[in-house]
Amino acid sequence: MPENMLDVFNQIGFRAAALSASIMRLPYKEGRIGQMGIFQSRGIRTTSAQVEFKNGRLGLIQSTRRGEPVQPMGRTKSTIRPINSVRLALTDKIMAGDVQDLRQFGQSGASSTKAVADLVTEKLAEARQNHQYTQEYHRFGAVQGVVLDADGTTVIHDLYDLFGLTRPTLSFELGDPNTDVLGKCLALKRRMGAALGQKVRDVHVFVDDGFHDALRNHAKVRQAYERWQAGAALRDDLRDGFRFGGCVFEEYGTESADDLVQQERGHAIPMNIPGLFVENFAPADYIEAANTTGQELYAKQERMKMDRGIEIETQSNPITFGTRPEAQFLITP
Fold first, then answer.
1. Cα–Cα distance for residue pair 210/332, rounded to 1 Å
2. Would you state the pLDDT for residue 106?
3. Total Cβ atoms within 10 A of residue 287
4. N or C terminus of the chain: which is more exposed, having fewer CB within 10 Å?
5. Helix/strand/coil (H/E/C) assignment for every residue in 225-286
6. Do the strands 203-207 and 266-270 form a parallel or antiparallel pair, or are they unpaired?
7. Strand arrangement of the beta sheet that strand 169-171 belongs to
8. Which of 276, 275, 272, 202 is nearest to 241 (CA)?
9. What is the pLDDT of residue 66?
10. Shortest CA distance to 315 belongs to which of 163, 127, 46, 57?
11. Residue 228: what pLDDT?
């Protein structure tokens, strides 16, 4: 076994590539938006993406090497803006004392190494859970068109501001018992279809609990469901998906103060639209990652000064956005 227990970290299994592969293999629970499969994810070789707005659609401009043919832009006037990746990094430490304690349980170098590896895996698993939650947070920001930092106020990027667009809105007027709610759903789909240039049949709306309750208890909605399956929709818990007028209204959040949907708001997106949301991953700011294709997560370890322990860092560098912001609606009750 190593003369110094910290020498365990010099082995191949603890190098950056191996740790990065290890953190990606760890089991984790996909966020709600991730479960929907509406994001196209891929790595890129640069730290920013050139995004072009043309004909109501945002698209990435493919990078080319010097001297190679350049992508034609066509005759339609377009606006091109860069969107920078954001570095999301966490650090943790394994102190010499932690490793020394583990050494007491092993009778051989192999078992000691496994004990250290298990400790590293535990640290990586905890870090991945935090990255996963942040990824869901950024994806939901892309659904809204505005991606915010963890403080909930600092703007990472606002597509509407970046491209001079106005976010489309629609009030459902649920406070009026005479409102034609079905008509509101149809109006939402028609306006989305006009923005997309195609017919929209299915819409998903993330709402808060107040919006969900106001919709479910609206006189027109209750009347529509009273005789359908003996009114089951009015008795069951449908917070995970209440369908009306071709729109699925989902109460999104954790029933706590950190709910992502603000009060009295809903965020509506068309479904079954290829390439609706994009998630790019830039390379990490490590020498070995420079000019390589970025990956979703990196992990790396470094020996601390005076051999007091090992510092572990995990990192992700996403660029997350929706490609059809004019079809992503803010709705109010």
1. 10
2. 45
3. 7
4. N
5. HCCHHHHHHHHCCCCCCEEECCEEEEECCCCCCCCCCCCCCEEEEECCCCCCEEEEECCCCC
6. antiparallel
7. 169-171, 329-332, 266-270, 203-207, 247-251, 242-244
8. 202
9. 53
10. 127
11. 58
Q: For residue 161, list its beta bridge partners.
A: none
pLDDT by residue (tens digit) across 21-76? 777 777 666 788 988 899 999 999 999 888 888 776 776 665 555 555 545 555 45
Which residues are CB-neighbours of 21 under 8 A, at least 6 positions away?
Answer: none
**Cα R_g (the chain), whole angstroms:** 25
pLDDT at position 9, please?
A: 58
Helix (H) or strand (E) holding 43: strand 39-43
All residue ranges of the chain with pLDDT < 50 are 1-2, 70, 75, 104-107, 229-230, 255-257
Paired tokens of 231: 């009114």
| Helix, strand, or coil (residue 79) | strand
- pTM score, whole prediction: 0.82
Q: Could you tell me which residues come within 8 angstroms of residue 67 by beta carbon, excluding any fewer than 6 positions away?
A: none
Query: Dihedrals φ, ψ of 89, to 5°?
Result: -130, 145
Q: What is the pLDDT of residue 257?
A: 39
**Quick one: tokens of 267?**
């965020």
Q: In angstroms, rounded to a whole number, what is the distance separating the alpha carbons of residues 294 and 328? A: 28
At 54 the pLDDT is: 76
Q: How many residues does the chain have?
A: 333
Burial of residue 36 (number of CB atoms within 10 Å: 0-12, 13-18, 19+): middle
Distance separating alpha carbons of residues 326 and 48, to the nearest angstrom: 23
Q: Which residues pair with 244 in a beta bridge?
A: 247
